[in-house]
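Budget justification note: compute hours in this period were largely spent on complex prediction jobs such as the one shown. Inputs:
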Amino acid sequence: MAVRGGAWRVAEFPNLVGLIRHPAAGAILFDTGYAEHFFRATDGFPERFYRWATPVSLPPEECLQAQLARRGIAMHEVRAVFASHLHGDHIAGLRDLPNATIWCGGDALRLLRDGGRLHLLRRAYLPTLLPEDFERRHRRIEDAPQCALPARWSALGTGYDLIGDGSLWAVPLPGHARGHYGLLLRHDDDREWLLVGDAVWRQAEIREHRPPALPTRLLIDDAAAHLDTRARLHRVFADAQRANDGGIALLPSHCPHSYRALPASMRETDGDARTERSA
Ligand SMILES: [Zn+2]
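Corresponding output:
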């Protein structure tokens, strides 16, 4: 269902979390992925339908705590989480990160405040995943200074300089979910990486500028904005290709091919994470 023209079979959807080690700001996560809290939040009805629609496998060694421990980081040492959007599969681990500031988009927060339980569930929101002190700990992305993105990314408009040192930009990628953002950073390999969250599910959708498959359009918050975002991502990619510029990389959250193509130093698990579908 996720790939236009794809075969009818069970597909693999890894669920990526990014660890960013900022020299001054410390350990920062891009999303949290799944956690035990997701299973508790979807035990009852109607939330159980979410779990049925997106069956999850979460082996202990792939839990956030185990993965961070292998990098020498304890959960309480994580200083911030950048929530690309508030779908349950991206924020289920927030409750396990007691000291993290939580960045999220203003539109995502507004929907959270105004929506009823069913309305939110239909949009893949599970409010019980948010920590009790979420109000105190969250920061609106739009409250960070707005700034022009580095030249290669100008097709995506302006971004927000999260830390104020030009190292981490929140990039509006609207459409998939309310208040959906990507995160742009410069990695040790000197390339500029854009973590695109769920703006696309597969890298090939950017490269080939494929429209989303029909069934998945039903899950999209704003179809026109989603198509516009994908066209802009394609423009960035195509411009770089034309200029023979290898200095950019785009990484969707659920693309197994992109994950396996990462340098070994950037991967943590074997890449065979088995989440069969994801919102
Ligand atoms: Zn999503």
